[in-house]
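Example record

One chain of 212 residues, shown exactly as stored in the release files.
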Amino acid sequence: MKTMVNVALPKGRLGEKVYDYFKKAGFECPSIEETNRKLIFENPEKGVRYFWVKPSDVAIYVERGAADIGVAGKDILLEYEPDVYELLDLNIGKCRMAVAAKKDFRDPKGTTLRVATKFANIAGNFYAEKCRDIDIIKLNGSIEIAPILGLSDVIVDIVETGTTLKENDLEVVETIVPISARLIANKSGYKFKNEEILAIRKGLEEQVRIRG
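Predicted structure tokens for this chain:
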């Protein structure tokens, strides 16, 4: 019997795209495409066991060994800094982490910059490199409203199309880092299931190349 590789997939549209990459790479699992309420799907013949988890939880499952590999956004990896290996940029789920503000914004040098964000670690590291004194205001939703209501000077958030910013009279001031989905591996799992994980990585790498 083949060694089973446990794979954490992010729920939602991104996860469906990711699974399609695995499927086309030769690691299909028919039961995952059925309409059911199962949480774990496996194909012993291909040596894979999949399960869906919340996108922000993928790195936790992988870091703690419940999954051998998984797919997480670069934003999650930068924010939480999990102790995992980053094996491959899948080149999907592309967007960027950016600083945005009202269109008439001018950085008030000499004062503390108020930054509203879900990504306190990313924002903190970004401004620390600039030696800029900031006050981080941790929010979990509707971050765009913070500068409009005067709660913050700027926001740090993921920007995909920029439509929401434009509709709220905000604009990108600086891009911090490009974001995309990454294949990650548990360090112990990578050691003990190296051959199997590398075979999956190779298959996915070919899919990335084919799809440009």
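Notes: Residues 123 and 156 are 6 Å apart (CA to CA).
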